[in-house]
């Protein structure tokens, strides 16, 4: 019987630099904690500095061998994304790991600073722009990885190219599913483009199964069911950590929990057929570059 993979199996991360978006709570906080514990310098990229600083102090109190640094990043504002990328580039010349984790799940209809539906704007477009703006740092760092956190909800997702902002028919779950499908289309297309450019950077994806986080705070039903069925964030983060650090990960891999992809230790899993639609992925890429005004420059 294969020994279940836990964070204890993570390789040493000393000397490596990691960015974890949305790391003041939940899966993101657990990822930052685990990476710092293994020696990495972890940039906690968070919208609210008031929430991020206490979260960082909780990690520092654990006396990790690495360190945590808080930086402001609002993925719902592309100007903030650009400012974050500029500040990071001024202070760091390498980027070993970018974990695109931040998100918002099933809120009432809202728009980002640039007028995008909030979930699509934060979960997909914000991370698309961030990754593109940091691509040179990733490409210059041997063994760099980009891990984007998706969800089982991608299975019901459709990319509404004729109404990406869902202005004609907004339903919170519909917006969330579209955004999480976009995460996977982005990951697979990014990996294809990295390979075509001859870059060694890997793009992979993960999902936490049913985990107790703040992401679904807008859903009263989920708040009631979480205590009964959800696994703790310390377990939910394992697929992300596996994708980020396990030596056998390949570009385009997708990881989730073992037991029905809801709970348990990480394993490689399959995403749905729609997520592998290369024509849709190319179209989404083109649209994303147009909307964010971030054009990827592969080495």
UniProtKB/TrEMBL annotation:
Name of this chain's protein: Short-chain dehydrogenase
PANTHER family given in the database record: NAD(P)-BINDING ROSSMANN-FOLD SUPERFAMILY PROTEIN, RETINOL DEHYDROGENASE
Family per record: Belongs to the short-chain dehydrogenases/reductases (SDR) family.
Source superkingdom: Bacteria
Entry-linked CDD domains: retinol-DH_like_SDR_c_like
InterPro entries documented for this protein: NAD(P)-bd_dom_sf, SDR_fam
Protein keywords: Oxidoreductase
Pfam families tied to this protein: adh_short
């Amino acid at each position: 019987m294969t020994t279940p993979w836990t964070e204890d199996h993570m390789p040493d991360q000393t000397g490596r630099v990691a960015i974890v978006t949305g790391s003041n709570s939940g899966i993101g906080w657990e990822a930052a904690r685990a990476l710092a514990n293994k020696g990495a310098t972890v940039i906690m990229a968070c919208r609210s500095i008031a929430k991020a600083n206490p979260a960082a102090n909780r990690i520092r109190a654990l006396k990790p061998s690495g360190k945590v640094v808080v930086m402001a990043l609002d993925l719902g504002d592309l100007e903030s994304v650009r400012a974050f990328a500029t500040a990071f580039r001024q202070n760091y010349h390498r980027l070993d790991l970018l974990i695109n984790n931040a998100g918002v799940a099933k809120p009432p209809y809202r728009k980002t600073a640039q007028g995008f539906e909030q979930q699509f704007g934060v979960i997909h477009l914000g991370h698309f722009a961030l990754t593109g703006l940091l691509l040179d740092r990733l490409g210059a760092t041997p063994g760099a990885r980009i891990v984007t956190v998706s969800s089982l909800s991608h299975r019901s997702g459709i990319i509404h190219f004729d109404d990406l902002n869902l202005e004609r028919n907004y339903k919170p779950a519909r917006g969330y599913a579209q955004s999480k499908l976009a995460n996977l289309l982005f990951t697979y297309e990014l990996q294809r483009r990295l390979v075509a450019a001859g870059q060694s950077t890997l793009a992979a994806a993960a999902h936490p199964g049913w985990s107790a986080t703040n992401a679904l705070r807008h859903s009263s039903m989920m708040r009631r069911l979480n205590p009964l069925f959800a696994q703790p964030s310390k377990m939910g983060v394992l697929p992300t950590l596996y994708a980020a650090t396990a030596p056998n990960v390949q570009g385009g891999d997708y990881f989730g929990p073992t037991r029905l992809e809801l709970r348990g230790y990480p394993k490689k899993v399959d995403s749905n057929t729609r997520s592998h639609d290369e024509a849709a992925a190319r179209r989404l890429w083109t649209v994303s570059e147009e909307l964010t005004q971030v054009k990827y420059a592969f080495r």
